[in-house]
């Protein structure tokens, strides 16, 4: 089984969250945070910063881990475990800017477009946006349908 380690960051300000519309590749036409795969010999922090710069042109400065999620799913048709390290970021350098891959947009916390996001997001993202720390496991079929899930709130990650 393939294994991937990824980062995902959500910029936060004054009751809003920055989501980005994926314009190509894995997750196309879905709103999400920004992030991606960790490259060889790269730390989580470096990957988070690199992906944020590449995808929306910002450099995270103050961020903390908000969730640790494992997805048993299919990636490019192959069974894959995706271990996603999710962060909330409250300070960054630069202005979120559209790239070839992502189109960022601010949303009020009570207006997050869950219907246009990954099917697991409504299960854990509201808790993260409320300030909780979450550990979760999801199993999805080849069509991204959730087969099973477990979510726990923890004191620290």
Mean pLDDT level: 96
Number of strands: 9
- Number of domains as seen in the coordinates: 1
Label the structural class.
Answer: mainly beta
CATH fold call:
Nucleoside Triphosphate Pyrophosphohydrolase
CATH class label: Alpha Beta
Low-confidence stretches: none
The major sheet is characterized as: 9 strands, mixed
CATH superfamily: Nucleoside Triphosphate Pyrophosphohydrolase
Cα-atom Rg, whole angstroms? 15 Å
Quaternary class: single chain
Helical residues, percent: 10-25%
The number of helical runs is 2
Span between termini: 26 Å
Describe the structure.
This protein is mainly beta and 157 residues long. The protein has a single domain, classed as Nucleoside Triphosphate Pyrophosphohydrolase (Alpha-Beta Complex). It is built from two helices and nine strands; from the N terminus they run E-E-E-E-H-E-E-E-H-E-E. Strands 1, 2, 3, 4, 5, 6, 7, 8 and 9 form a nine-stranded mixed beta sheet that branches.
């Amino acid at each position: 089984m393939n294994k991937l380690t990824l980062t995902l960051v959500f910029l936060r300000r004054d009751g809003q969250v920055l989501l980005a519309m994926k314009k190509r590749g894995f997750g196309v036409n879905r709103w999400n945070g920004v992030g991606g795969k960790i490259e060889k010999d790269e730390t989580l922090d470096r990957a988070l910063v690199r992906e944020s710069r590449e995808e929306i042109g910002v450099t995270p400065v103050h961020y903390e881990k908000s969730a640790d999620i494992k997805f048993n799913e299919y990636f490019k048709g192959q069974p894959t475990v995706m271990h996603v390290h999710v962060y909330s970021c409250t300070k960054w350098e630069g202005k979120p800017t559209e790239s070839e891959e992502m189109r960022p947009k601010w949303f009020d916390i009570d207006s997050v477009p869950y219907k246009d996001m990954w099917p697991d997001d409504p299960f854990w993202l509201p808790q993260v946006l409320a300030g909780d720390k979450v550990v979760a496991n999801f199993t999805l079929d080849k069509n991204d349908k959730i087969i099973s899930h477990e979510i726990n709130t923890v004191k620290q990650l």
